[in-house]
Amino acid sequence: MIFETFPVGRLACNCTIVADETTREAIVIDGGDGVADVMERLKRQGLRAKYLIHTHAHFDHIADVGGLRERTSAQALLHPADLPIYHQQPALARMFGLPEMPPVVQLDGDLADGDRMTVGSVDFEVLHTPGHTPGSVCFAVRHNRDLRLVTGDTLFAGAIGRWDLGGTSMKDIVDSIGRKLMDYPDATPVIPGHGAFTTIGTERVSNPYLQ
């Protein structure tokens, strides 16, 4: 399995490219604000993006998904509960004092809790974790015995995502983490939407929001 995470865009969103080493098929997670960087990394490794999937619809994770789709011909997917936020992202960007966003485009399909996607021998499971936004999702990525969680802005190292931008609450996000993430083994790596990586075990014992 190829698994590469790197910051993109003005808010340093963690974009992750996951690919099968044999088929060279890839899934790009939260690459919508880093088209040039994503394309350079795909090209460098000879990868073909099959899906563009998003943990949620805030602009730093999805802003130029149309440009990335045009360059890759991949399918762009989002949980439907976040479509209202997706269509409001130019206004959200202005609220943060950022320049005008790329145009909002029609997406190719929905993500739903329990959905499975594959690229070669790599398996993705969608975990609906409302709280940061109503349609926030995490992804459980498995390849043989290798398991990793990509948590977007739901769970961070030592923190959780903010809950004041999409009609949700702290209780919603903590409940989602408890129901969907805390049953994974302590050693499971967690790749959040921004900042440092962590593990489920570390967050279980030290994250102040989960005690």
Provide a concise account of the structure shown.
25% of the residues lie in helices and 31% in strands.
Topology:
Layout: E1 2-8, E2 13-19, E3 25-29, H1 35-45, E4 48-53, H2 59-62, H3 65-72, E5 75-78, H4 83-87, H5 89-95, E6 109-110, E7 116-119, E8 122-128, E9 137-143, E10 146-152, E11 155-156, E12 159-160, H6 170-180, E13 189-192, E14 198-199, H7 200-206
Parallel strand pairs: 3-4, 4-5, 5-6, 10-13
Antiparallel strand pairs: 1-2, 2-3, 7-8, 8-9, 9-10, 11-12, 13-14
Helix pairs in contact: 1-3
Explain this structure.
The chain has 211 residues and is of the alpha/beta class. It has one domain (2-210): Ribonuclease Z/Hydroxyacylglutathione hydrolase-like (Metallo-beta-lactamase, Chain A), CATH 3.60.15.10. Helix content is 25%, strand content 31%. It is built from seven helices and 14 strands. It has helices spanning 35-45, 59-62, 65-72, 83-87, 89-95, 170-180, 200-206, and strands at residues 2-8, 13-19, 25-29, 48-53, 75-78, 109-110, 116-119, 122-128, 137-143, 146-152, 155-156, 159-160, 189-192, 198-199. The strands form three sheets. A six-stranded mixed beta sheet has the order 1-2-3-4-5-6, covered by helices on one side. Strands 7-8-9-10-13-14 form a six-stranded mixed beta sheet. The radius of gyration is 16 Å and the shape is globular. It starts with a strand and ends in a 5-residue tail after the last helix. The mean pLDDT is 95.
